[in-house]
Design a protein that fits this description.
By secondary structure, this protein is mainly α. It is built from 20 helices and no strands. 78% of the residues lie in helices and 0% in strands.
Length: 557
């Protein structure tokens, strides 16, 4: 039986919240609706911009803080570790205590730790800031959607959900656009100062412009916290393996294997406990139904394909020596593409367009990979404008339909299933992105080693073309190095660097080819599932029509 914790206001039918924990939907003036939209934009961007700034400037931050690549990898990993598990608490917390309290705790903690890091610095506090930002990000993502729902009448709920869940995706291109300016007049301190300012602005906006009250009910049980105590470290261990596997190499460090085994034991133990609960936090039986399994695979793969941009294009340009300054215009194009994708998805939204929009996003990812295949060391950021605009368009387009499709499936069984959907969505999107980067980086390194071996084997100093190239390179150093032996060594080292660069470019082309093949296979599978479902629906409708024929009088009318 539902236990109300607060008396509910007298709502009109059209004002009632759709679920416990959701705000009511009263009438607002146009000015107030615009204010809600602005707060949604601010909070949604705040939730992910701090982590995006660190990811975009990770080499710079590593150098200024004196971190090794392995230590640097812990910074974005700490955000993901906390964010992926905090989402388990968000839905039930807002049902029992309200979203505002969770947000005030998250944003307040985030701002406080960030300001402390400005004064103290160091690796430990840098990781703590990222963990706090992950906690705040879990609240900010949900809050962005709830505020955006208040920006339009209830008839536009679906379109507002698409925009609300899409706003956090603007954080990454904005981080690349802002980074050069933030780093001009200072070191890493400017990034964290900007981050703390955003958190404080969001906190002030949430306090000043409150969400309408909702219905608060008692939902937490003691066993919920036991499940969380098992799932949180299990998911964190899994994230740690994905984050550190490449830098330490997957099979060279035994502790990676122990982390992976520990993750499997803890997650399976949590699922076992949930499976045998009367009122579970996670609906394990629902998770193994065919529809949800297809949703999990599809959500994971579609996020995996976005790695063509986050690792493929950006990784290649970084290998060619491009930094945030040079890539700033490219990410301006990516920002426009993401906004265009969100708007296209919102404007064309309807229950019938959810699947077509997801398929369109897969097609865009495949086209982008095809355009990027065949890159050379002469390519520059402007050569990626078209392909990365397509990836951004698909990224902005798929998130809203994915969320609405999952929520629709969950609500068919009841509000309690929304918690499970939230966890599934968070894990598929987070692990899909991390797995994509981990697998593609591993594949790229393997192919680079293969190509380096082949190219070095073809470099014969007695070959006239190679000898001519070495002679030209020695001429570069002749004004600087007088010793001919040292000039020859410098020339050989330069040729080795060029060989390594070309091997890397070829390896990234293999990454683009792999992304394109995966997109093609995923598209084929999606079309097969969609066509089969359409055929089944038609047959069901035809069977229903034959079982209930229209009366003769109605046919004559």
């Amino acid at each position: 039986m539902v236990q109300l914790l607060k008396p509910t206001p007298h709502w009109e039918e059209h004002e009632k919240p759709s679920l416990p924990g959701s705000p009511a939907m009263p009438y607002h003036t146009p000015a107030v609706r615009a204010a809600y939209a602005c707060v949604a934009l601010l909070v949604g961007i705040t939730g992910g911009l701090g982590n995006a700034l660190v990811t975009a400037n990770l080499p710079t931050i590593q150098g200024q803080l004196g971190l090794t690549p392995s230590e640097g990898a812990w910074l974005p990993a700490a955000f993901v570790m906390v964010n992926i598990t905090a989402n388990m608490l968000v839905f039930k917390f807002r049902q029992q205590y309200g979203m505002r309290l969770f947000t005030e705790i998250g944003l307040g903690l985030y701002a406080a730790v960030t300001v402390l890091h400005l004064f103290v610095g160091g690796f430990a506090l840098a990781v703590a800031v990222r963990a706090a930002s992950g906690f705040a990000g879990a609240a900010a993502t949900t809050l962005s959607m709830l505020y955006m729902l208040q920006a339009a009448p209830r008839a536009y709920t679906g379109k507002m959900v698409v925009l609300g869940v899409g706003i956090p995706q603007l954080a990454t291109p904005l981080a690349w656009l802002l980074s050069p300016t933030l780093l001009v007049f200072g070191q890493w301190h400017n990034l964290y100062l900007f981050e703390a300012g955003l958190a404080l602005c969001s906190l002030a906006a949430v306090v000043v412009l409150k969400l309408p009250p909702g219905m608060h009910i008692k939902v937490f049980e003691k066993r919920d916290f036991l499940t969380f105590a098992l799932m949180a470290p299990g998911a964190a261990m899994l994230v740690a393996v994905l984050a550190q596997g490449y830098s330490h190499w997957w099979f060279d460090e035994p502790w990676l294997a122990y982390l992976l085994m520990g993750a499997l034991v803890l997650i399976l133990a949590a699922l076992y406990l949930e499976h045998h609960r009367a009122n579970p936090l996670l609906q394990t039986r629902w998770l193994v139904t065919p529809n949800i399994l297809r949703f999990v695979v599809g959500a994971f793969l579609i996020r995996f394909l976005t790695s063509e941009q986050t690792y493929g294009a950006v990784g290649l340009l970084r290998t060619l020596g491009m930094g945030p300054d040079q890539m700033q215009p490219l990410f301006g194009v990516i920002l426009l593409g993401t906004i265009a994708g969100m708007l296209a998805s919102a404007l064309t939204f309807s229950p019938k367009t959810l699947i077509p929009q997801l398929i369109a996003a897969i097609v865009l990812f495949g086209l982008a990979a095809m355009l990027d295949y065949g890159r050379t060391s002469m390519d520059r950021p402007q050569d990626f404008y078209v392909s990365q605009f397509l990836v951004a368009l698909g990224s902005g387009m798929f998130m809203g339909p994915l969320v609405l499709l999952g929520i629709t499936q969950a609500l068919k069984f009841g509000p309690n299933y929304v918690v499970t959907f939230t966890v599934v969505l968070s894990m598929t999107q987070t692990l899909g992105a991390m797995t994509g980067s981990a697998m593609l980086s591993t594949y790229q390194l393997h192919r680079e080693q293969v190509y380096s071996t082949e190219l070095v084997a073809d470099v014969n100093p007695t070959d006239p073309q190679v000898a001519r190239r070495l002679q030209l390179q020695q001429g570069i150093y002749s004004p600087l190095v007088l010793d001919p032996v040292q000039r020859a060594a410098q020339s050989a080292a330069l040729l080795s660097q060029i060989t390594r660069r070309e091997a890397n470019v070829r390896a990234f082309n293999d990454v683009f080819a792999l992304s394109g093949i995966l997109a093609l296979l995923f598209l084929s599978w999606s079309l097969f599932v969609a066509v089969r479902a359409a055929i089944r629906n038609r047959r069901a409708e035809a069977a229903a029509a034959s079982d209930n024929p229209a009366p003769a009088g109605a046919a004559n009318r």
